[in-house]
Amino acid sequence: MAVLDVSGLNVWYQAPDGRQMHAVRDLDLTLEAGQRLGLVGESGCGKTTVLNAVMALVPPTATVSGRVIFDGVDLLVPDEINARKHRWTGLSLVFQSAMNAFNPVVRVEDQIAEPMVVHGLRDPRAAVRRARELLELVGIAPSAGRRYPHEFSGGMRQRAMLAMALACDPQVLIADEPTTALDTMVQAQILTLLDRLSSELGLALLLVTHDLPVVSQLCDRAAVMYAGRIVESGPIADLYHSPAHPYTRMLFDATPDVLSEHAVASIPGSPPPLNEERTGCAFAPRCDSAAEVCRTEPPPLVRPGSDRLAECHRPGAGVDRPARKAHHV
Ligand SMILES: Nc1ncnc2c1ncn2[C@@H]1O[C@H](COP(=O)(O)OP(=O)(O)OP(=O)(O)O)[C@@H](O)[C@H]1O
Protein backbone atom coordinates (compact mmCIF):
# COMPACT_ATOMS: atom_id res chain seq x y z
CA MET A 1 0.00 0.00 0.00
CA ALA A 2 1.33 3.45 -0.92
CA VAL A 3 2.12 5.54 2.15
CA LEU A 4 3.15 8.53 0.05
CA ASP A 5 1.78 9.09 -3.43
CA VAL A 6 3.09 12.07 -5.39
CA SER A 7 1.50 12.69 -8.79
CA GLY A 8 1.82 15.38 -11.43
CA LEU A 9 4.14 17.44 -9.22
CA ASN A 10 5.41 20.68 -10.78
CA VAL A 11 7.58 23.31 -9.13
CA TRP A 12 8.51 26.67 -10.64
CA TYR A 13 11.01 29.02 -9.02
CA GLN A 14 10.95 32.67 -9.83
CA ALA A 15 14.34 33.97 -10.99
CA PRO A 16 15.38 37.49 -9.85
CA ASP A 17 14.63 38.78 -13.38
CA GLY A 18 11.06 37.42 -13.12
CA ARG A 19 11.56 34.38 -15.37
CA GLN A 20 9.90 31.14 -14.29
CA MET A 21 12.36 28.26 -13.75
CA HIS A 22 10.58 24.94 -14.15
CA ALA A 23 12.58 22.80 -11.69
CA VAL A 24 10.26 19.77 -11.28
CA ARG A 25 8.12 18.67 -14.22
CA ASP A 26 5.07 16.42 -13.94
CA LEU A 27 6.75 14.09 -11.52
CA ASP A 28 5.11 10.92 -10.16
CA LEU A 29 6.60 9.05 -7.20
CA THR A 30 5.16 6.35 -4.96
CA LEU A 31 6.57 5.11 -1.67
CA GLU A 32 5.11 1.91 -0.26
CA ALA A 33 4.84 1.30 3.49
CA GLY A 34 8.23 0.17 4.85
CA GLN A 35 9.93 0.64 1.47
CA ARG A 36 13.31 2.31 1.05
CA LEU A 37 13.54 4.43 -2.04
CA GLY A 38 16.63 6.33 -3.15
CA LEU A 39 16.03 9.45 -5.22
CA VAL A 40 19.26 9.94 -7.16
CA GLY A 41 20.63 12.22 -9.84
CA GLU A 42 23.35 14.78 -10.38
CA SER A 43 23.43 18.15 -8.68
CA GLY A 44 20.63 20.50 -9.71
CA CYS A 45 18.25 17.85 -11.10
CA GLY A 46 15.57 18.78 -8.54
CA LYS A 47 15.87 16.16 -5.79
CA THR A 48 15.77 18.62 -2.88
CA THR A 49 13.00 20.59 -4.58
CA VAL A 50 10.81 17.46 -4.56
CA LEU A 51 11.36 17.01 -0.81
CA ASN A 52 10.81 20.68 -0.13
CA ALA A 53 7.54 20.62 -2.09
CA VAL A 54 6.36 17.59 -0.07
CA MET A 55 7.30 19.29 3.21
CA ALA A 56 6.01 22.76 2.17
CA LEU A 57 9.51 24.21 2.50
CA VAL A 58 9.79 25.84 -0.94
CA PRO A 59 10.17 29.64 -0.83
CA PRO A 60 6.89 31.61 -0.95
CA THR A 61 7.74 32.91 -4.43
CA ALA A 62 7.78 29.35 -5.84
CA THR A 63 4.68 27.86 -7.47
CA VAL A 64 3.77 24.24 -6.73
CA SER A 65 1.05 22.15 -8.39
CA GLY A 66 0.07 18.48 -8.32
CA ARG A 67 -0.96 16.08 -5.58
CA VAL A 68 0.97 14.80 -2.57
CA ILE A 69 -1.24 12.23 -0.88
CA PHE A 70 -0.18 11.06 2.56
CA ASP A 71 -2.52 9.04 4.72
CA GLY A 72 -5.46 9.94 2.45
CA VAL A 73 -4.80 13.69 2.78
CA ASP A 74 -3.55 15.93 -0.03
CA LEU A 75 -0.73 17.89 1.58
CA LEU A 76 -0.77 20.48 -1.20
CA VAL A 77 -4.32 21.65 -0.49
CA PRO A 78 -3.58 24.83 1.49
CA ASP A 79 -6.69 24.91 3.66
CA GLU A 80 -6.67 21.19 4.40
CA ILE A 81 -6.92 21.29 8.22
CA ASN A 82 -4.95 18.12 8.70
CA ALA A 83 -2.20 18.82 6.18
CA ARG A 84 0.18 20.59 8.57
CA LYS A 85 -0.24 18.09 11.37
CA HIS A 86 0.16 15.13 9.00
CA ARG A 87 3.20 16.64 7.36
CA TRP A 88 5.10 17.16 10.57
CA THR A 89 4.09 14.07 12.46
CA GLY A 90 3.62 11.31 9.85
CA LEU A 91 6.52 12.51 7.71
CA SER A 92 9.84 13.45 9.19
CA LEU A 93 12.84 15.16 7.65
CA VAL A 94 16.56 14.66 8.29
CA PHE A 95 18.92 17.21 6.78
CA GLN A 96 22.52 17.07 5.64
CA SER A 97 23.80 19.42 8.32
CA ALA A 98 22.80 18.39 11.82
CA MET A 99 24.48 21.47 13.31
CA ASN A 100 21.99 23.76 11.56
CA ALA A 101 19.04 21.67 12.78
CA PHE A 102 19.79 22.39 16.45
CA ASN A 103 19.45 25.54 18.47
CA PRO A 104 22.91 26.04 20.05
CA VAL A 105 21.56 27.36 23.37
CA VAL A 106 18.97 24.65 24.13
CA ARG A 107 19.83 21.25 25.63
CA VAL A 108 19.63 18.39 23.12
CA GLU A 109 16.93 16.46 25.01
CA ASP A 110 14.71 19.53 25.21
CA GLN A 111 14.98 20.01 21.45
CA ILE A 112 14.05 16.38 20.81
CA ALA A 113 11.13 16.74 23.23
CA GLU A 114 9.78 19.96 21.71
CA PRO A 115 7.94 18.54 18.65
CA MET A 116 6.10 16.05 20.89
CA VAL A 117 4.84 18.91 23.07
CA VAL A 118 4.08 21.24 20.15
CA HIS A 119 1.98 18.56 18.43
CA GLY A 120 0.21 17.68 21.68
CA LEU A 121 1.54 14.11 21.76
CA ARG A 122 3.04 14.25 25.27
CA ASP A 123 3.26 16.60 28.22
CA PRO A 124 6.71 18.22 28.75
CA ARG A 125 7.98 15.71 31.37
CA ALA A 126 6.89 12.66 29.39
CA ALA A 127 8.36 14.21 26.24
CA VAL A 128 11.79 14.54 27.86
CA ARG A 129 11.58 10.93 29.11
CA ARG A 130 10.77 9.84 25.55
CA ALA A 131 13.63 12.00 24.21
CA ARG A 132 16.08 10.09 26.42
CA GLU A 133 14.68 6.76 25.18
CA LEU A 134 15.10 7.96 21.61
CA LEU A 135 18.71 8.96 22.28
CA GLU A 136 19.35 5.46 23.57
CA LEU A 137 17.67 4.01 20.47
CA VAL A 138 20.15 5.86 18.24
CA GLY A 139 23.15 4.79 20.32
CA ILE A 140 23.68 7.81 22.59
CA ALA A 141 23.72 7.56 26.40
CA PRO A 142 20.44 9.07 27.65
CA SER A 143 22.34 11.26 30.14
CA ALA A 144 24.08 13.01 27.21
CA GLY A 145 20.73 14.62 26.41
CA ARG A 146 21.53 17.23 29.09
CA ARG A 147 24.37 18.53 26.94
CA TYR A 148 24.27 21.28 24.30
CA PRO A 149 24.70 20.55 20.56
CA HIS A 150 28.25 21.94 20.37
CA GLU A 151 29.32 19.34 22.98
CA PHE A 152 28.39 16.55 20.53
CA SER A 153 30.68 15.25 17.77
CA GLY A 154 29.43 15.42 14.16
CA GLY A 155 28.35 11.78 14.24
CA MET A 156 26.52 12.24 17.57
CA ARG A 157 24.69 15.28 16.23
CA GLN A 158 23.57 13.29 13.20
CA ARG A 159 22.31 10.53 15.52
CA ALA A 160 20.56 13.09 17.71
CA MET A 161 18.89 14.57 14.63
CA LEU A 162 17.60 11.08 13.81
CA ALA A 163 16.26 10.84 17.36
CA MET A 164 14.49 14.17 16.85
CA ALA A 165 13.08 12.96 13.51
CA LEU A 166 11.59 9.93 15.29
CA ALA A 167 9.99 11.99 18.06
CA CYS A 168 6.49 11.98 16.57
CA ASP A 169 6.53 8.29 15.52
CA PRO A 170 6.57 9.01 11.77
CA GLN A 171 5.63 6.48 9.09
CA VAL A 172 8.05 8.01 6.59
CA LEU A 173 11.56 9.29 7.16
CA ILE A 174 12.79 11.66 4.47
CA ALA A 175 16.55 12.08 4.47
CA ASP A 176 18.32 14.67 2.31
CA GLU A 177 21.99 13.72 1.86
CA PRO A 178 22.11 12.51 5.50
CA THR A 179 25.71 11.30 5.33
CA THR A 180 27.33 13.65 2.81
CA ALA A 181 29.02 15.89 5.39
CA LEU A 182 30.41 12.97 7.44
CA ASP A 183 33.70 11.11 7.23
CA THR A 184 33.64 7.56 5.86
CA MET A 185 33.59 5.75 9.22
CA VAL A 186 30.81 7.88 10.68
CA GLN A 187 28.93 7.65 7.38
CA ALA A 188 28.99 3.84 7.63
CA GLN A 189 27.70 4.01 11.23
CA ILE A 190 24.81 6.30 10.29
CA LEU A 191 23.86 4.08 7.33
CA THR A 192 23.85 1.03 9.61
CA LEU A 193 21.71 2.94 12.09
CA LEU A 194 19.23 4.03 9.40
CA ASP A 195 19.05 0.44 8.21
CA ARG A 196 18.30 -0.82 11.72
CA LEU A 197 15.76 1.89 12.55
CA SER A 198 13.90 1.41 9.29
CA SER A 199 13.67 -2.37 9.88
CA GLU A 200 12.83 -2.22 13.60
CA LEU A 201 10.27 0.56 13.34
CA GLY A 202 8.85 -0.40 9.91
CA LEU A 203 9.70 3.07 8.62
CA ALA A 204 9.47 3.89 4.94
CA LEU A 205 12.57 5.76 3.82
CA LEU A 206 12.91 8.34 1.08
CA LEU A 207 16.60 8.98 0.71
CA VAL A 208 17.83 11.82 -1.45
CA THR A 209 21.44 11.62 -2.50
CA HIS A 210 23.84 11.88 -5.41
CA ASP A 211 25.78 8.99 -3.89
CA LEU A 212 24.84 5.72 -5.62
CA PRO A 213 26.85 3.45 -3.29
CA VAL A 214 24.85 4.85 -0.35
CA VAL A 215 21.61 4.05 -2.16
CA SER A 216 22.73 0.54 -3.07
CA GLN A 217 23.68 -0.11 0.56
CA LEU A 218 20.44 1.10 2.08
CA CYS A 219 17.60 1.06 -0.46
CA ASP A 220 15.58 -1.59 -2.27
CA ARG A 221 14.56 0.77 -5.05
CA ALA A 222 15.90 3.81 -6.82
CA ALA A 223 14.28 6.58 -8.82
CA VAL A 224 16.73 8.31 -11.15
CA MET A 225 16.03 12.00 -11.73
CA TYR A 226 17.21 14.09 -14.62
CA ALA A 227 16.29 17.72 -15.29
CA GLY A 228 13.19 17.70 -13.09
CA ARG A 229 11.78 14.32 -14.11
CA ILE A 230 12.17 10.72 -13.01
CA VAL A 231 13.65 9.02 -16.05
CA GLU A 232 13.89 5.52 -14.60
CA SER A 233 12.78 3.66 -11.47
CA GLY A 234 12.95 0.10 -10.21
CA PRO A 235 14.86 -2.28 -7.95
CA ILE A 236 18.38 -0.94 -7.48
CA ALA A 237 20.12 -4.16 -8.62
CA ASP A 238 18.07 -4.22 -11.86
CA LEU A 239 18.98 -0.62 -12.57
CA TYR A 240 22.65 -1.45 -12.15
CA HIS A 241 22.71 -4.72 -14.07
CA SER A 242 20.40 -3.75 -16.92
CA PRO A 243 19.81 0.02 -16.98
CA ALA A 244 17.09 0.95 -19.43
CA HIS A 245 17.84 4.67 -19.62
CA PRO A 246 21.29 5.65 -20.89
CA TYR A 247 21.41 8.29 -18.15
CA THR A 248 21.11 5.56 -15.48
CA ARG A 249 23.94 3.63 -17.12
CA MET A 250 26.14 6.72 -17.47
CA LEU A 251 25.43 7.71 -13.86
CA PHE A 252 26.64 4.30 -12.62
CA ASP A 253 29.68 4.53 -14.90
CA ALA A 254 30.48 7.95 -13.43
CA THR A 255 30.54 6.52 -9.89
CA PRO A 256 34.03 5.86 -8.48
CA ASP A 257 34.82 2.39 -7.18
CA VAL A 258 37.94 1.92 -5.05
CA LEU A 259 38.47 -1.63 -6.32
CA SER A 260 38.04 -0.88 -9.99
CA GLU A 261 40.88 -0.63 -12.49
CA HIS A 262 38.54 1.23 -14.86
CA ALA A 263 38.67 4.99 -15.09
CA VAL A 264 35.50 6.78 -14.03
CA ALA A 265 33.56 7.87 -17.11
CA SER A 266 32.25 11.40 -16.68
CA ILE A 267 29.04 12.50 -18.40
CA PRO A 268 29.89 15.21 -20.93
CA GLY A 269 27.89 18.43 -21.10
CA SER A 270 25.47 19.83 -18.55
CA PRO A 271 21.72 19.65 -17.85
CA PRO A 272 19.39 21.92 -19.85
CA PRO A 273 18.39 25.35 -18.52
CA LEU A 274 15.31 25.26 -16.31
CA ASN A 275 13.47 27.96 -18.23
CA GLU A 276 13.67 26.03 -21.52
CA GLU A 277 10.63 24.41 -23.14
CA ARG A 278 11.41 20.87 -24.26
CA THR A 279 10.46 19.03 -27.42
CA GLY A 280 12.43 15.77 -27.24
CA CYS A 281 14.23 13.98 -24.39
CA ALA A 282 16.03 16.42 -22.04
CA PHE A 283 19.04 14.08 -21.90
CA ALA A 284 19.42 13.70 -25.70
CA PRO A 285 22.19 16.33 -26.11
CA ARG A 286 24.41 14.40 -23.64
CA CYS A 287 23.32 10.87 -24.48
CA ASP A 288 25.78 8.51 -26.17
CA SER A 289 22.91 6.53 -27.73
CA ALA A 290 20.56 9.28 -28.90
CA ALA A 291 18.80 8.97 -32.27
CA GLU A 292 16.98 11.68 -34.21
CA VAL A 293 13.63 10.83 -32.60
CA CYS A 294 15.15 11.53 -29.15
CA ARG A 295 15.64 15.18 -30.14
CA THR A 296 12.23 15.70 -31.68
CA GLU A 297 9.65 13.62 -29.74
CA PRO A 298 8.99 13.36 -25.98
CA PRO A 299 10.20 9.96 -24.75
CA PRO A 300 7.52 7.30 -24.15
CA LEU A 301 7.01 5.61 -20.79
CA VAL A 302 8.21 2.00 -21.12
CA ARG A 303 8.26 -1.00 -18.79
CA PRO A 304 11.68 -2.64 -19.10
CA GLY A 305 10.67 -5.32 -16.57
CA SER A 306 8.11 -6.05 -13.91
CA ASP A 307 8.17 -3.32 -11.31
CA ARG A 308 10.26 -1.04 -13.54
CA LEU A 309 9.55 2.13 -15.51
CA ALA A 310 11.66 4.26 -17.83
CA GLU A 311 11.11 7.22 -20.12
CA CYS A 312 13.20 6.49 -23.17
CA HIS A 313 12.96 6.05 -26.96
CA ARG A 314 15.81 3.54 -26.95
CA PRO A 315 15.67 1.62 -23.63
CA GLY A 316 18.74 -0.51 -23.02
CA ALA A 317 20.81 1.19 -25.73
CA GLY A 318 24.55 1.02 -25.06
CA VAL A 319 24.45 -1.37 -22.06
CA ASP A 320 27.30 -3.44 -23.51
CA ARG A 321 29.66 -0.47 -23.73
CA PRO A 322 33.07 -1.16 -22.12
CA ALA A 323 32.82 1.45 -19.35
CA ARG A 324 30.35 -0.85 -17.57
CA LYS A 325 31.29 -3.59 -15.11
CA ALA A 326 33.33 -1.08 -13.13
CA HIS A 327 31.26 -1.25 -9.94
CA HIS A 328 29.56 -3.76 -7.73
CA VAL A 329 26.02 -3.63 -6.42
N1 LIG B 1 15.11 28.99 -4.16
C1 LIG B 1 15.44 28.80 -5.44
N2 LIG B 1 15.28 29.78 -6.36
C2 LIG B 1 15.61 29.58 -7.66
N3 LIG B 1 16.09 28.42 -8.16
C3 LIG B 1 16.26 27.42 -7.29
C4 LIG B 1 15.96 27.53 -5.89
N4 LIG B 1 16.24 26.35 -5.28
C5 LIG B 1 16.70 25.53 -6.24
N5 LIG B 1 16.72 26.16 -7.44
C6 LIG B 1 17.14 25.60 -8.73
O1 LIG B 1 16.32 24.46 -8.99
C7 LIG B 1 17.09 23.41 -9.55
C8 LIG B 1 16.94 22.18 -8.70
O2 LIG B 1 17.61 22.40 -7.46
P1 LIG B 1 17.65 21.31 -6.30
O3 LIG B 1 18.39 21.90 -5.15
O4 LIG B 1 16.29 20.81 -6.06
O5 LIG B 1 18.51 20.16 -6.99
P2 LIG B 1 19.24 18.92 -6.33
O6 LIG B 1 19.11 17.81 -7.29
O7 LIG B 1 18.75 18.70 -4.95
O8 LIG B 1 20.74 19.45 -6.30
P3 LIG B 1 21.86 19.26 -5.16
O9 LIG B 1 22.20 17.78 -5.15
O10 LIG B 1 22.99 20.12 -5.64
O11 LIG B 1 21.25 19.75 -3.88
C9 LIG B 1 18.52 23.92 -9.63
O12 LIG B 1 18.78 24.39 -10.95
C10 LIG B 1 18.55 25.07 -8.66
O13 LIG B 1 19.48 26.06 -9.06
Describe the protein's architecture and organization.
The protein is of the alpha/beta class. The chain folds into three domains: 1-90 and 172-184 and 201-219, Rossmann fold (3-Layer(aba) Sandwich); 99-169, no CATH class; 246-329, no CATH class. It has helices spanning 47-54, 83-89, 98-101, 108-118, 124-137, 154-165, 184-201, 212-218, 236-241, 246-253, 292-296, and strands at 2-14, 20-32, 36-40, 63-70, 73-74, 91-94, 172-176, 204-209, 221-226, 229-235, 301-302, 309-311. Strand 4 (63-70) and strand 5 form a beta hairpin. The structure holds adenosine-5'-triphosphate (ATP).
Distance between the termini: 27 Å
* Assembly status: single chain
* Ligand species: adenosine-5'-triphosphate
Read across the widest sheet, the strand sequence of neighbours is 6-7-8-3-9-10-12-11
Q: How many structural units, i.e. domains? A: 3
Assign the CATH superfamily of the largest domain: P-loop containing nucleotide triphosphate hydrolases
- Uncertain segments are none
What is the overall number of helices?
11
Shape: globular
What is the correct CATH architecture of the largest domain?
A: 3-Layer(aba) Sandwich
Which class best fits the helix and strand makeup?
Answer: alpha/beta
Number of strands: 12
- Classify the helix fraction into a percent range: 25-40%
- Please identify the top-level CATH class of the largest domain: Alpha Beta
